[in-house]
Amino acid sequence: MNLITCLEVIEHVANRDAFLAALSALLAPGGMAVLSTPNRTPASWAVVIAGAEMITRSIPRGAHDWNRFLTPAELAEALVHAGLRVESSHGLSWRPDRGFVMGADLSVNYFMVAAKG
pTM of the full predicted structure? Predict the structure, then answer.
């Protein structure tokens, strides 16, 4: 069994289907992939683009194209198309008093765990 992590990458990839097919091919049977990406919502635009790129400049301006962000349903469909089984999703949201927190809220950013058959 092996593990592949793909954190904050998929939204920058030109050919997502080819990328996920290659990721799937690298996984051994029973292997797992953990991906994270911003969701395509107004909340993600506010946090990632307005907040991190424009206001705090903790991410270079123009690093993200909100139109390339994937919703959880879109990523799940693409993973299944690549021959993987989605196991779970976990949210990563922003709270002014706590910063980033893990939980059920997928509106800003999320992790998705997928396994190979």
Answer: 0.91
